[in-house]
Amino acid sequence: MTQVAGRDTRSEILDKALELFTRQGYAGTSLRDIADAVGFTKAALYYHFPAKEDLLLALLDPVIKALDALVTGEHTHPASLLAAYLDFIIERRPVVGFVLREPAALDHPALAQVQWDLIVRLRDRVAGPGSTPDDRVRAACALGAVHMAVLSIDPENLPAARDVIVASACAALAG
Fold it and tell me: Homologous superfamily of 3-50 in CATH?
């Protein structure tokens, strides 16, 4: 990674890109905006990310890999899996919030199917082996409860609300 005066340039660019994408939208943010925010020339930004799409993919790739690891992980009990998923979202709240609100992230050809497959796999793991269609609907509702709680509760209040969020998500499973 390139370092300039003690800065991790790639991470700094990604942080500013996420900030601008969140505030202005993906379509409303240009590479010039990002370069200006980081204090680079556009050419210097192109060195790290030749296209805006490369920034989007770089932001989402680690999240997708981490979600895949969670989905294939050790959690076998639905409450444990929901709690781990909640922690996953809290830890990555800025990026996850961006993904959930941004059509460019949800509909990107290289990402859309992968994201969908992961969420379906997560839903099926929460529903459990031999689940019925009703079980899968309840599991989807439980995951939705986790999403909405994280996105609608002030980040500083999330640790105190963690147990309530998990209990509420589990209540959706009970039907």
Answer: Homeodomain-like (1.10.10.60)
